[in-house]
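Our preliminary data section would be incomplete without showing what the modeling component actually yields. Below, a chain of 96 amino acids is followed by its predicted structure, encoded as tokens that our downstream tools consume directly.
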Amino acid sequence: MSLQTSDSHLVPKRTYYSIYVILLVCTYLTWQVAFFDLGVFNAVAAVTIAVFKAVLVILFFMHVRYSTRLTWVVVIGSVFWLGILLTLTCGDYLTR
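Predicted structure:
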């Protein structure tokens, strides 16, 4: 008995292995960036790599890439709400 519906998308295992290797490389890059003195750009580089890794996890391991438009709307709304919260938090922090 298969739990898979007819409209779902099968992702080959090779895709998951490739994403896993990319995530490992990004983790290694984050570790290497920590040893270089880039000034203010240390945080920028680390956050950029972290955002890239998060996007890969959301798209492939959470199956958003092959999901319906409603799922995309929820994900985009969540990212928008996170942006609002971070903006409000930074605004509060910077005005103290």
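Residues 44 and 68 are 32 Å apart (CA to CA). The chain has a mean pLDDT of 89. Preliminary results of this kind motivate Aim 1 of the renewal.
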